[in-house]
Design goal:
The chain is an all-beta fold and 111 residues long. The chain has no helices and 16 strands. It starts with a strand and ends with a strand.
Length: 111
């Protein structure tokens, strides 16, 4: 139900499941209402998400019902119904129904 990364520790439903490895890759299979990740290398939702935010790390997902935001990293999704923002990274989507902002990066539409 709930995945969070706080101060380099990974929590799932409040339980610390932090791996010993320094690189963190997260993959969620299924639909998720909301995701807020402090930092990871790559984050993928194989399904739909209500809203998603990462402090740093690349984000890849299906449809986003709300907004998608990352401080540093690329965002690649199908349809994003809300606003999209990345401080440093590319944004790629088939459809974006809100505004798009990137500090340094490219905005591309999938075909």
């Amino acid at each position: 139900n709930n995945v969070s990364i706080v101060n380099g520790k990974v929590y799932i439903d409040g339980k610390d499941v932090t791996p010993d490895a320094k690189e963190i890759y997260i993959a969620v299979q299924g639909d998720v209402e909301s995701i807020d990740v402090g930092a990871c290398n790559d984050f993928e939702v194989i399904g739909n998400v209500g809203s998603v935010r990462t402090g740093s790390g690349n984000l890849k997902c299906g449809n986003v019902g709300g907004g998608a935001q990352t401080g540093s990293g690329d965002i690649e999704c199908e349809t994003i119904n809300g606003n999209v923002q990345t401080g440093s990274g590319n944004v790629e989507a088939t459809t974006i129904n809100g505004s798009v902002k990137t500090g340094s990066g490219n905005i591309k539409y999938k075909k």
